[in-house]
Structure to design on (920 residues):
């Protein structure tokens, strides 16, 4: 066994009186800073168990002073020492070292620097960037947020379904997909499965079948898009949360979306206060206030048709959008969504009942014959963050639509769900990486993913 | 909003005295059985929120008797009624219906039958099989087991890392991979990423980099193999759990493996008692006892070399393996592993320090020059269920090995981890679907995955 060390997280969670009673503690981690005045040296040690560092002190009268003073930035080290309260300093205590050990040195070509480096540079060194403050915070929050998602749905009795990554279908009927192949000589595309197979763009259709057995279900896994969108919000591989609720209409859907988003935000504010303080100070001033406002607000509901009227009035009143051509039937752009949520409502808003032409085939047609029971959640500072809908449960209507689109073939099973004990059901999708962007204030999706996958970027 | 219904789970969790006080309850779900004697009818209603059904009674004096008696197997229905205690019957209470509503009927070509159907048949109807008892149990346990995994690691402070599915590497240096393409005319393979890309076979190498920042990390996501192994234990897409622990040697690794497996088993026995009773009765008699034995045992540690001696003695003593050619350096087959854990030890055993020739390049070479610090956990009734190792942290040794294998190119970053504040670290991998097989007693991996992906099987 390796020498038992106390984690920095545990240190900060233990009352100082308890720590001072200990004969000696062992800490291990990586050096974030190492400076000395000739008589006394200070190391900020980071062990990855929490956002905070711990200060280790070494003095000139110790036999290892010379050696430790040479420990480089980034080195893996271990110290034994005594915890001493430091009531006059910023940190509540420090460790006065009694022995030191270098576990792993650092070669001179180490790409990281003590000083702040750009996100662009760090993207090129994706395997090292979790060692920086920003990415330490981002990826810990990513982990905790994933747990929040699971906790929310499991507490509500949702069954987690691992929908497949490899599929013969394409849920949206649109969007570019990656095809997979075994590189065999004869039939590179059909050799393995006996038919062409692609990477999933959504687990929704597959998970709907499970909602017809378990009532409430959710997927949470990777999805793929082969579109070369070089924006700050698109990646070719990202994680999606896709819940599906049986015996639930669009109002039930909105209730669940609101509860889910609030739960996730609350969870992160509670579990990651140091990380959120960091984001609030260095990445996106005001992000905490933004999130707290969401928590405090009742999400407003507004029909798409009313949204269009509001936008028309804004244009008439002199507001300048990049696209000022507002008409019923148009697909809203981010600037329009943000106007509604930021300027008009001043808080989160569910925009619902969209024109059927701009929405997916599986969404339930309303009685007006023009709209479908689709909903987008718009939030200030972002625009759309969740998209959902009540699903078309009427066999004939759905089949007519699918036949017209020519995507019935291969999806007969999906249609059949409407013939075999079907019921009213609804669901939604949350882009997990975008939710993480919203919560942390990080403004490029590449900086929320451990090893981002975008066009022409596959270094690791 | 849809009419507020009480879930079957909630019904069973509420004291009967409380339920009897209610004027009326609403339940909704799917019909599992519907029979009547002319005067009184009984419906077993399943709503997917728990394994149990609820009995709904309808009598001939109600205006809807005729109609309800025709509700078919599988139909989605809603009932209002009064909860009445049934102290003399098997189930503690039933619902005496006061109104009924058919939400979704069932066409006559419904493939499911009231009577038991074969797993092979149900595999062909994967989208419907969660409606059967067995798969209701399997997929609820799958969901709860996934939660157990997250809970275990998050409670221990591990950071969950979404390692990429699309990669330029191949972790094991072996095994067939799926290549991905955009089907573009000019450069179908390199068009998107500027280089060939494949689906991951393991997140280990990627997650090791994060262990050098967060100390303890884990991945839990889909992995892929393009091998056409037509066995009950191989699928082309499956989920893997891959933890990685910094400042941890092989003993630390084994401690974590043992704690993890016991936690998962305990969690399922506690959270899924009805499902486990079902498996114990219908799928694998004795599975609960098997699991409880694992919980009660201290996992034994045994070197590979000792394992070989034991197998040699078994052969000398007349034991017949399919492969009786036992020698130091061989790769053990399942029959050998099972002999050691079932016959010799009679409980879980960590077999460790394997010949380096039969193990992966990243495993740490022991001082004997012949073995590496690899470990497999063997359990009765299964054989290997977890594989792990201490990783080679010494740059020169690792580089020599990788150069010899010719896989250094593209993995320089992985080598670099040894130059930039590296430390002793260890990790392991658990095939999630196989763990689920072990816990449920289900003996075909195709029956543990919502939509299994194997050679020539991609129906959905």
């Amino acid at each position: 066994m390796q020498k038992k060390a106390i984690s920095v997280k545990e240190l900060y969670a233990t009352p100082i009186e308890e720590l001072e009673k200990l004969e000696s503690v062992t800490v291990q981690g990586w050096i974030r800073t190492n400076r000395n005045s000739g008589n006394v040296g200070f190391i900020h040690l980071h062990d990855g168990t929490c956002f905070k560092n711990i200060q280790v002190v070494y003095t000139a009268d110790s036999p290892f002073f010379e050696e430790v003073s040479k420990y480089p930035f980034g080195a893996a080290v271990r110290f034994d020492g005594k915890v001493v309260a430091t009531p006059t300093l910023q940190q509540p205590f420090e460790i006065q070292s009694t022995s030191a050990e270098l576990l792993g040195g650092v070669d001179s070509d180490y790409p990281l620097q003590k000083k702040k480096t750009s996100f662009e540079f760090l993207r090129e060194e994706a395997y090292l960037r979790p060692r920086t403050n920003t990415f330490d915070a981002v990826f810990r929050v990513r982990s905790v947020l994933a747990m929040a998602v699971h906790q929310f749905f499991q507490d509500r009795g949702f069954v987690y379904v691992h929908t497949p990554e490899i599929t013969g279908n394409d849920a949206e009927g649109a969007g570019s997909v990656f095809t997979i192949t075994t590189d065999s000589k004869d039939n590179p595309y059909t050799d393995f499965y006996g038919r062409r197979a692609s990477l999933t763009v959504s687990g929704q259709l597959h998970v709907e079948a499970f909602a017809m057995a378990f009532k409430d279900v959710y997927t949470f896994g990777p999805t793929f898009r082969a579109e070369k969108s070089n924006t700050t919000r698109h990646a070719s591989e990202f994680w999606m949360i896709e819940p599906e609720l049986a015996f639930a209409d669009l109002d039930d859907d909105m209730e669940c979306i609101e509860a889910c988003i609030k739960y996730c935000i609350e969870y992160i504010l509670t579990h990651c206060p140091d990380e959120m303080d960091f984001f609030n100070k260095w990445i996106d001033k005001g992000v905490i206030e933004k999130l707290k406002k969401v928590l405090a607000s009742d999400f407003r509901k507004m029909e798409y048709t009313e949204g269009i009227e509001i936008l028309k009035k804004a244009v008439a009143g002199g507001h300048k959008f990049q696209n000022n051509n507002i008409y019923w039937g148009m697909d809203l752009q981010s600037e329009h969504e943000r106007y509604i949520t930021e300027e008009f409502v001043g808080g989160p808003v569910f925009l619902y009942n969209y024109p059927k032409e701009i929405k997916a085939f599986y969404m339930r047609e309303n009685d007006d014959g023009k709209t479908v029971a689709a909903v987008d959640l718009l939030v200030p500072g972002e625009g759309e963050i969740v998209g959902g809908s009540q699903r078309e449960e009427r066999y004939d209507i759905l089949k007519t639509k699918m036949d017209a689109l020519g995507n019935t073939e291969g999806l007969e099973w999906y249609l059949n769900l409407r013939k075999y004990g079907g019921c009213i059901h609804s669901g939604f999708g949350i882009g997990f990486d975008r939710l993480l962007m919203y919560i942390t204030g990080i403004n490029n999706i590449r900086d929320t993913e451990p090893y981002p996958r975008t066009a022409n970027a596959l270094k690791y």
User: Anything to note?
Assistant: The two ends of chain A are 32 Å apart (CA to CA). Chain A has a mean pLDDT of 95. The first strand of chain A starts at residue 25 and ends at 36.
